[in-house]
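Hi team,

Filling in the usual template for the complex we talked about on Friday. All components are listed, including any nucleic acid strands or ligand strings, so the model treats them as one assembly.

SUBMITTER: L.P.
PURPOSE: interface mapping
COMPONENTS: two
RESIDUES: 315
SEQUENCES:
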Amino acid sequence: MKLIALVVALGLAGTASAQTALPPAPYAYTQLDNPALEAKAKALMETIRCLTCQGQSIADSNASMAADLRSDIRERIKAGEAPEHIRAWLIERYGDWISYKPTAEPITWPLWAAPLLLLGAGAYVVTGRLKGHKGRRA
Amino acid sequence: MKRPWLLWIPLAAFLVFLTIGSLGLHRDQQQIVRSRMIGKPIPGMDMPAASSSNPAFSTKAFADGKVHLVNIFASWCVPCAAEAPQLAQLQQRGVLIDGIAVRDARPDVDDFLAKFGNPYARIGLDARSVMQFYLGSSGVPESYVVDGKGVIRYQHWGPIMPQDMDDILEQLREAAS
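RESULT (copied from the run log):
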């Protein structure tokens, strides 16, 4: 049992030192004391893409850069900055790519219009069928 | 039904969707994230010295008429060791290279420089990746060409390998003109 613990500890130490020699940033793995602010920060972090492991949000990622960005975001929220302001700041530097939140840019307009178009098409088909039934009954 | 072939449209649409989806599964997902800061002034930041040998610097004083090559590196970064010979060559050609050591500690940076050479004029420390966020930098290593007015002109993503030298030198020349 002790041996297993030792092996696990050595393994963890190995991966940690392989990436960075520094202790994690203050708010990388520590929540803010104020639950309302923490909720704001968490909601934002879940929609910011990790730059290192690109399929994950920074809230889910263990990459050092994601940890630093979490800490930076928490510190900014604590200082009173609005989450959407931080998002805009990041988009200014990395492009829309960094945000998981869909934007209203022209390129996404077909996406937003799709439900309306499909609903319209559905209504057209349904009215056509209803009319058809009435016609047959008469 | 007048047009029975209409019935096949949903199935055809589904097959198209399936094809696109399954091809997408095998596409390389990792993409290079270009910084949107190219063409903009380099964000001003004071950085402490990251090594015992090189002075610290501030990007606030970058509009000094000289072209700078800002190299983001780290002692823990393996590709950074691979680009060391190319950086040494650039330095020999008179390129002013300022290093930013990311998430690093001074003894480690000292070791790294002793092992792989020290092409840097100055080295600043970016302990919490904040300078990287300001620059729109997404990884280590990366290099930025900054012109004499302090404007970022070019981003090189990843290590500078021998085949990248012509490109980097061309970008440095352009920034100087």
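MY TAKE: Chain A touches chain B through 24 residues (CB under 8 Å). The radius of gyration of chain A is 25 Å.

Thanks, L.
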